[in-house]
Amino acid sequence: MPEVIFNGPAGRLEGRYQPSKEKSAPIAIILHPHPQFGGTMNNQIVYQLFYMFQKRGFTTLRFNFRSIGRSQGEFDHGAGELSDAASALDWVQSLHPDSKSCWVAGYSFGAWIGMQLLMRRPEIEGFMSIAPQPNIYDFSFLAPCPSSGLIINGDSDKVAPEKDVNVLVEKLKTQKGILITHKILEGANHFFNGQVDTLMGECEDYLDRRLNGELVPEPAAKRIR
User: Fold this and answer.
1) CATH code of the domain in which 174 resides
2) Pairing mode of beta strands 27-31, 59-63
3) How crowded is residue 209: how many other Cβ atoms within 10 Å of its Cβ?
4) Residue 143: predicted pLDDT
5) CA 79 to CA 97: how far, in whole Å?
6) Whole-angstrom distance, CA of residue 47 vs CA of residue 217
7) Structure confidence by residue, pLDDT tens digits, 183-214
8) Bridge partners for 106 per DSSP
9) Taking the chain, what is the end-to-end CA distance rounded to the nearest angstrom?
10) Environment class of 119 (CB within 10 Å of its CB; exposed 0-12, middle 13-18, buried 19+)
11) Which segments does the entry list as coiled coil (predicted)?
12) 19 in a domain, yes or no?
């Protein structure tokens, strides 16, 4: 798994990158938790998501947001980190011009950044949002949410309470043409202590079902002219 350094908006960004053998393979970008609370690309959940996509033939990248590890720049409260993520996707796409689709997976703070990236990039066809924090971050930009995806959280999460995640999920589920899959892990906290294997099992099951052509949204009703 090559260590890479590529240019971001605030200087160099450090990442880990694994290209697929297939030229047209989809791309997966994995986004880490909050930089000021110990989040890095080597977070266990981020690391495991990276390998989950890699094993399924994706070209895969995880990277450190600005100010973390060897990534340059200063923490920017989300705006700069979104630019970092966009630059990371640009960089992978420049190496894989035949790749037509992309997935984004984010954990905690990374889930918020990932959902914003989803709004900006129509080629992102699937997302995984792990322990998102709608009680802290504004998700109102998801209007409408352009892609189907998985939202997964624990019912013992004190950082992002279940009731707040449920409100976000219910709002997204009212949209036509996409399918939001919501999984709640019993007894899991924000860090999925002792439950990472269960979490990854749910993510793997979801990804496999999507890749097999399952979990297709109902077609939107045709408008009568």
Assistant:
1) 3.40.50.1820
2) parallel
3) 13
4) 87
5) 27
6) 30
7) 999 999 999 999 999 999 999 999 999 999 99
8) 31, 129
9) 54
10) middle
11) none
12) yes
Structure tokens belonging to residue 114: 């990932």
Other C-beta atoms within 10 Å of 152: how many? Answer: 23
What are the tokens at 121? 């990039």
Please state the pTM of the whole predicted model.
Answer: 0.96
Which range marks the domain in which residue 207 is found?
3-212
Place of tokens 């009703």: 221
CB neighbour class for 153 (10 Å; exposed up to 12, middle 13-18, buried from 19):
buried
The neighbour count for residue 86, using CB atoms within 10 Å, is 18
Residue 25 maps to a domain: yes
Rounded CA separation 92/51 (Å): 17
* Cis peptide bond prior to 134, omega within 30° of 0: no
**Spans of the chain, pLDDT less than 70:** 1, 220-225
Q: What is the DSSP string of 33-53?
A: S-GGGT--TT-HHHHHHHHHH
**Measured between alpha carbons, how far is 63 from 66 in angstroms, rounded to an integer?**
9
Q: Which residue shows structure tokens 């260590």? A: 3
Tokens (6 digits) for 80: 């700069």
The token pair at 153 is 């959280």
Assess if residue 220 is contained within a domain. Answer: no
Token pair of 199 as six digits = 């979490």
Angle formed at CA 144 by CA 30 and CA 165, multiple of 5 degrees: 60
